[in-house]
Amino acid sequence: MYETFGMSRRGFAKSAFPLGVAATLLTHLTADAQRQEKNGDGTMTLTPYLLFDGNCRQAMEFYKTCFGGDLALTTVKDSPAKDLMPPAQHGKIINARLQCGNVSISASDWLRPSETPVRGNTVCLYLSGAGFPALKALFDALSHGAEVTDPLTTQFFGTYGALNDKFGVRWMFQSNEKV
Prior knowledge:
It contains 4 helices and 8 strands. With 179 residues, it is α+β, with helices and mostly antiparallel strands. The protein has a single domain (9-175), classed as Roll (2,3-Dihydroxybiphenyl 1,2-Dioxygenase, domain 1), CATH 3.10.180. It is globular and about 35 Å long. It starts with 8 loop residues before the first helix and ends with a strand.
């Protein structure tokens, strides 16, 4: 049912994020750390994360006209990932974030040139901002019957993990706390 371009939905979700995920999260982490400093509460947030096939800027600018708010866009060439990615990727958006009140949408362009995005499978749920114990509890709960693609591990930016739950939904987890 979900086979397109010879790749299953689960296989697509598993391969869609590893390249550039650290650089994308680095940009999110800065915004999340600023929010946590401002709020001081470590409240977990759930944000839809969208992947676009080269038109992230246009899509996010459109969403800004619909929702209003503040839009921040970062290209690969303006990020710490520029030396990790080929020059052909440097003009793409590595991170976009639209914030309007309680509405937040995060996105990036597709950054895996060896694979083709499948329309409809380019959305994941991004949990961030909580302390490690709360994040780990959710990761463990959602792991039942899941395909864990990235176990919760300490990265240079904090803790990160990802999985495709037993229903095929992609989840990314991030905490500024290191374990």
